[in-house]
Amino acid sequence: xxxxxxxxxxxxxxxxxxxxxxxxxxxxxxxxxxxxxxxxxxxxxxxxxxxxxxxxxxxxxxxxxxxxxxxxxxxxxxxxxxxxxxxxxxxxxxxxxxxxxxxxxxxxxxxxxxxxxxxxxxxxxxxxxxxxxxxxxxxxxxxxxxxxxxxxxxxxxxxxxxxxxxxxxxxxxxxxxxxxxxxxxxxxxxxxxxxxxxxxxxxxxxxxxxxxxxxxxxxxxxxxxxxxxxxxxxxxxxxxxxxxxxxxxxxxxxxxxxxxxxxxxxxxxxxxxxxxxxxxxxxxxxxxxxxxxxxxxxxxxxxxxxxxxxxxxxxxxxxxxxxxxxxxxxxxxxxxxxxxxxxxxxxxxxxxxxxxxxxxxxxxxxxxxxxxxxxxxxxxxxxxxxxxxxxxxxxxxxxxxxxxxxxxxxxxxxxxxxxxxxxxxxxxxxxxxxxxxxxxxx
Length: 442
Known about the structure:
Strands 7, 16, 17, 18, 19, 20 and 24 form a seven-stranded mixed beta sheet that branches. Strands 2-1-3-4-5 form a five-stranded parallel beta sheet, with helices on both faces. By secondary structure, the chain is α/β, with parallel strands linked by helices. It folds into two domains: about 5-120, Rossmann fold (3-Layer(aba) Sandwich), CATH 3.40.50.2300; about 140-440, lpxc deacetylase, domain 1. It is elongated and about 80 Å long. It contains 13 helices and 24 strands.
């Protein structure tokens, strides 16, 4: 059936213009084809298309400049950007400038036709609710601060204490600062623990009592966090959670992490940290390790599906059961990770951080996060992932498990028990660890 809505294709490659002209014509769309900006502006004066398919790289005035001008002169014309060479920065900038979508070349025609159909149907995109966001300060209120007597006890572990066989280095970009940074991991003697050290030799043991604003959080019985940050003597070590998760699951109990304010975030997962530990090698030490064994349930939040909460319960081993439920493209996802039955390195470590484009954009405008977010997050906009392919269909729930495993290691000991969590954030994770810590020392 013939369609009356004209689609304009702007691309300097004749083969791509010809292919799109043929495909769109076969679908019944009238097509207006342009080789560059001059050609496009000349035809735009005579006819207004219903949709523009616009390549970024054009001779003379590029696609971004055309998009920016269109938003001023023809704000109602939807634009889908196309590129075979642009990265995440270009995609995000295109969305900021008002593009309705961004497609990488070579184009998958069935996907393109589906997007065109949606755009031209004039259906308003469904507004998604905010994700549990590490760009926002979230408060995890401890509803019942009472901790059962003897709820957690230290017991001998089946494994010895462990450190690394040698020194290893990892460089990358800081998530919050956006600056180039790095971390050096070095062996430590038995009973040293996980210790972070700044460049001026300030030591920050990786413990819940050393998180930023810990005293204030305990006093108010609430925890706020946009990531896991250690603080002491006006020195900070930011975003330790992914490295902590890798150390936790490798059974590393003693290590020194030398860092300049922020742990490199790389791709938003723990994959590089797991590979770094493997590169260094693991050394069993002649001292027995201890586990924090859960004997009575401890809970943070209310056990309601529409509210964030988590609790620990007795279990012989270590297991995490996580549930998330957000709007498209995530939906409800559930996953159980068992450290003895499942592989952290292949099942959890590669899962990346995620957030909405709106949350990231707002946080960047406020100056609370740096450009590191663009390279290290699955970015969601209008119900779809706009910057990458998922590593797992349920990568979102896997990353929530990753964050929780890292935060739990702030207890100072591996946990023996089952953790059941519903859409938790770093604040909720830390609130639970604080209760576990109190149970250990009382």
